[in-house]
UniProtKB/TrEMBL annotation:
Cofactor(s) of this protein: Mg(2+); FMN
Protein name: Coenzyme A biosynthesis bifunctional protein CoaBC
Biological pathway: Cofactor biosynthesis; coenzyme A biosynthesis; CoA from (R)-pantothenate: step 2/5; Cofactor biosynthesis; coenzyme A biosynthesis; CoA from (R)-pantothenate: step 3/5
Xref: InterPro entries: CoaB-like_sf, CoaBC, DNA/pantothenate-metab_flavo_C, Flavin_trans-like, Flavoprotein
NCBIfam families in the cross-refs: coaBC_dfp
EC number: 4.1.1.36, 6.3.2.5
Domain Flavoprotein: 12-178
Source organism (scientific name): Nocardioides marmorisolisilvae
Gene field: coaBC
Record-level Gene Ontology MF annotations: FMN binding; metal ion binding; phosphopantothenate--cysteine ligase activity; phosphopantothenoylcysteine decarboxylase activity
Function noted in UniProt: Catalyzes two steps in the biosynthesis of coenzyme A. In the first step cysteine is conjugated to 4'-phosphopantothenate to form 4-phosphopantothenoylcysteine, in the latter compound is decarboxylated to form 4'-phosphopantotheine.
HAMAP family named among the record's database cross-references: CoaBC
Catalytic activity: (R)-4'-phosphopantothenate + L-cysteine + CTP = N-[(R)-4-phosphopantothenoyl]-L-cysteine + CMP + diphosphate + H(+); N-[(R)-4-phosphopantothenoyl]-L-cysteine + H(+) = (R)-4'-phosphopantetheine + CO2
Domain called DNA/pantothenate metabolism flavoprotein C-terminal: residue spans: 193-409
Upper taxonomic lineage: Bacteria, Bacillati, Actinomycetota, Actinomycetes, Propionibacteriales
Gene Ontology CC annotations of this record: phosphopantothenoylcysteine decarboxylase complex
Amino acid sequence: MVTTPADRSRPHVVLGVSGGIAAYKACELLRRFTESGHDVTVVPTAAALEFVGAPTWAALSGKPVSTEVWTDVHEVPHVRIGQTADLVVVAPATANTLAKAAQGLADDLLSNTLLTARCPVVFAPAMHTEMWEHPATQANVATLRERGALVIEPAEGRLTGADTGKGRLPDPAEIFAVATDVLARGGIGVRDLAGKHVVVSAGGTREFLDPVRFLGNRSSGLQGYALARTAASRGAEVTLVAANVSLPDPAGVKVVRVVTTAEMQEAVVAASRTADVVVMAAAPADFRPTSLAESKIKKSEDGSAPVVELTQNPDILKGLVTDRPNPGLVVVGFAAETGDANGTVMDHARAKLARKGCDLLVVNDVGGGKVFGSEDNEAVVLGADGTATPVPHGTKSALAQVIWDRVTDLLRSR
């Protein structure tokens, strides 16, 4: 293995791959890293190469790969790879790899790299449910977290063979989002939401006119998903109530899928009974038709349009404030506003904060279609105490981190 010097103008990521059937998914993760400009060194275990061969990793990364510390020993790869890394991601991380990392074993190139790395380390576990739940694995995960590593909760779903349960490798897009967020923040950060249950809503609800048509909005759910993902990385138990969103489930997050505003209200209120925080990042429809046509509404021969009578939907945010499901619940709302003849964006936002009575209100200027569907965002976080925290243009994950910073301040004060 002739190592290629890292291009220090690009973030240097070490992608560790251990021996599980999910190793093939790491190819997609590698592609995302390389196509977004990261310099990636793949360090597979010998078992990983039983699932995906070395030529595949070499072709996708543009670098040769090895599992042994003895290859090109004059370049001391077992030390140099970890020393030069800006981030180490192990995906999939098997029970065996987690155990070796927790115990400080160093019997191959990946375990040596983990011992020499002084950068953030992210583990994405993948294994059968029984292996994940075993006390030995849970103890190893706790040890790694105590040492500052980020161990992502595995997803639930289809495992090897016909088995299903918790232990599935999170979607590569979600692992990539977590990893790039860690790089942007310059580290893992503290697990200051550990022991807290947070509920996040995302997406836009739909109110049906007939079997094929509905009233809806342009919400993509990206901001709500970023909030759920970052809360999980900060240690929270997260329930995500998602309306009509086509995004992979955030790693380690319980997802409840809904369609209408009434369904969202029911799911949010139910989850909030055991929650410490609720963040209403979704865009529930304000109105719904008073009646639902049993069949598709047809065009009239004379060209006249049907008259649709609307009624107002329940205000989920205001209801949470008025009838808090439990004392001490922190409630965060979102306001997608535009200026008009009656006031500026911030005028409308402050009036909405007073009207809703929530603890924090995240204000987006959506004039001209801004924010919807974009990977980036900018906002002002208003507090019921009169504070205003501007968040400059950046990723939705960056905004999510600021929101959780404000939330943790409120939780500490209660």
